[in-house]
């Protein structure tokens, strides 16, 4: 494709505009998706926080209700009265199958847990007695003498939602304490993740207690240490506090998920951009072709007109600027045809006028030239009248016939030259044209004192042209040459076939006419072909 063509420029400009538009669209889309993801992430993180808070509140309520019910269990009170630890454990296990809690514990009146039953047989407290008197929940329950609920740690460093209720005899004396709780462990975190699709972790008083597989270990890991700090590198982290600041919820939105969404979105926009770009290029090429085709046709028409074909008409398709340009071009060629016809008619008339002028000049010479033959004819007729001998009369008749043929030839040449006719191309012998033109001007008065030197070519050159116009050109030039030598001179006419020096180019025939007259003024050289200029 030619880089200088209008088609190429239009196609490239459309392609650049499409590329820029697609690049801008892709960039805007990318940032819009990023902003949407950021807002969506904040919304999801907020919802996850609400879900965790609601679940903890729900567990607190259930723990309070179930711990109250179990603490009123007559069988537990009986076993405590009898100091039967196995009996207490058996009752707790039975109760744990009924309620939804994760564990049940019984502590003595001093707050030391001596029975702990958990789901899955978690009886670790039996090996290491747990002192409840260190917990805030126990202190509140002991001080008020009533049930207390809260969030705290239990052995081994596990965060729980717990409810502690006093166990009393019928007389109101304190037998011990019943604790029921829900573990805020990794299972709880996984439950939140299953509900929200977001990674969560629970931190209680600076201790990481539970996580949903965020690459962290639970139990005793301080916030800000490398396992927790690594979360922010792999996730977008949001924290919130509840339960009077005791519990910190850490929710994390994986950066990989954001990257996947952005990457998929970017891939989609790139794919759409590619197809849109390809379609745009095709449409651009079609548009460019529709724009350039009339221009090419106009260029073709201009070349036709340059070559002289004024009959060429452009197809006028559409009512747009290209169609109007085609119609204007057709009107222009029509006007040129009319103007050319008028010019040809004017040229024909000028040629005829020039020919008549030349005929007028030639007629005077011809009249003078045929005077001598007519005088000879008259003399021969007189001799025949007075009676000449037979042999003399035959000679006189032959001479009379010769003179008549001579006069007839001169008149025929003059009539043939002056006769108007259509322009016709034919083979013209240049030597013969030169000889005929010299014979016709030989009778002019201006040629009496002019010596004519004629050099015809030995190869009899023949050209394609109009014989009458060649003759007229030769007559006009030789007559002008004779008129430029009023006191006589020399006229040379030479026929050459090119190349002949610098005068005749190769492949052409030249008729070179020179005279010894006064010449043409320098300022008149450019006007010698103007009509009516001598």
In words, what does this structure look like?
This protein is α+β, with helices and mostly antiparallel strands and 534 residues long. The protein has twelve helices and 15 strands. Helix 7 (255-306) runs parallel beside helix 8 (321-369), helix 8 (321-369) runs antiparallel to helix 10 and helix 9 (371-385) runs antiparallel to helix 10. The longest helix has 66 residues, at 6-71. The chain starts with 5 loop residues before the first helix and ends in a 19-residue tail after the last strand.
Task: From the structure above, extract its key features.
534 residues, alpha+beta, 6-stranded antiparallel β-sheet, 4-stranded antiparallel β-sheet, 12 helices, 19% strand, rod-shaped
What percentage of amino acids are in beta strands?
A: 15-25%
Distance between the termini: 56 Å
> What is the assembly state of the chains in this entry?
single chain
Uncertain stretches: 216-228
Return the structural class: alpha+beta
Please work out how many helical segments DSSP would assign. 12
Helix and strand sequence: HHHEEEHEEEHEEHEEHHHHEHEEHEE
Rg over alpha carbons: 64 Å
> Taking strands numbered 1, 2, ... along the chain, how are they ordered across the largest sheet?
3-2-1-6-5-4
Average of pLDDT: 76
Gross morphology is: rod-shaped
Q: What is the helical fraction, as a range of percent?
A: 40-55%
Largest sheet: 6 strands, antiparallel
Q: How many beta strands in the DSSP annotation?
A: 15
């Amino acid at each position: 494709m030619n880089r200088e063509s209008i088609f190429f420029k239009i196609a490239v400009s459309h392609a650049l505009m499409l590329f820029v538009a697609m690049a801008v669209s892709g960039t805007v889309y990318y940032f819009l998706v990023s902003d949407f993801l950021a807002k969506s992430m904040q919304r999801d993180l907020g919802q996850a926080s609400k879900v965790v808070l609601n679940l903890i509140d729900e567990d607190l309520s259930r723990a309070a209700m179930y711990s109250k019910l179990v603490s009123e269990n007559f069988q537990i009170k009986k076993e405590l009265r009898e100091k039967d630890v196995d009996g207490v454990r058996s009752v707790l296990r039975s109760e744990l199958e009924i309620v939804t809690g994760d564990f049940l514990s019984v502590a003595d009146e001093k707050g030391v847990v001596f029975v702990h039953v958990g789901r899955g047989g978690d009886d670790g407290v039996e090996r290491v007695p747990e002192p409840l008197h260190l917990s805030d929940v126990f202190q509140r329950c002991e001080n008020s003498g009533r049930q207390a609920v809260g969030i705290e740690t239990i052995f081994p460093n596990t965060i729980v939602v717990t409810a502690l209720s006093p166990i009393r005899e019928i007389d109101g004396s304190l037998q011990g304490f019943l604790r029921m709780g829900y573990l805020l462990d990794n299972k709880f975190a996984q439950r939140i993740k299953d509900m929200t699709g977001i990674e969560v972790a629970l931190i209680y008083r600076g201790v990481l207690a539970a996580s949903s597989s965020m690459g962290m270990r639970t139990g005793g890991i301080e916030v800000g240490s490398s396992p927790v700090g690594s979360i922010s590198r792999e996730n977008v982290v949001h924290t919130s506090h509840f339960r009077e600041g005791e519990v910190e919820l850490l929710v994390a939105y994986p950066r990989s998920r954001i990257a996947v969404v952005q990457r998929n979105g970017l891939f989609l926009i790139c794919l759409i951009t590619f197809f849109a770009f390809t379609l745009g290029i095709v449409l651009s090429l079609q548009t460019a072709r529709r724009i350039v085709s009339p221009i090419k046709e106009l260029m073709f028409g201009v070349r036709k007109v340059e070559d002289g074909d004024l009959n060429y008409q452009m197809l006028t398709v559409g009512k747009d600027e290209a169609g109007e340009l085609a119609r204007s071009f057709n009107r222009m060629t029509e006007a040129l045809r009319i103007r050319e016809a008028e010019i040809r008619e004017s040229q024909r008339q000028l040629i005829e006028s020039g020919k008549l002028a030349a005929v007028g000049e030639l007629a005077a010479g011809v009249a003078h030239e045929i005077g001598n033959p007519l005088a000879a004819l008259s003399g021969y007729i007189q001799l025949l009248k007075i009676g000449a001998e037979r042999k003399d009369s035959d000679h006189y008749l032959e001479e009379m016939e010769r003179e008549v043929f001579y006069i007839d030839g001169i008149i025929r040449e003059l009539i043939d030259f002056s006769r108007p006719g259509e322009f016709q191309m034919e083979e013209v012998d240049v030597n013969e044209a030169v000889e005929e033109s010299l014979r016709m001007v030989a009778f002019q008065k201006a040629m009496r004192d002019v010596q004519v030197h004629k050099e015809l070519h030995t190869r009899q050159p023949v050209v394609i042209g109009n014989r009458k116009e060649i003759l007229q050109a030769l007559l006009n030039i030789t007559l002008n040459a004779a008129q430029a030598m009023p006191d006589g001179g020399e006229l040379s006419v030479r026929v050459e076939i090119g190349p002949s020096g610098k005068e005749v180019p190769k492949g052409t025939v030249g008729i070179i006419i020179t005279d010894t007259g006064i010449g043409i003024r320098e300022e008149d050289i450019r006007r010698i072909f103007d009509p009516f200029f001598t």
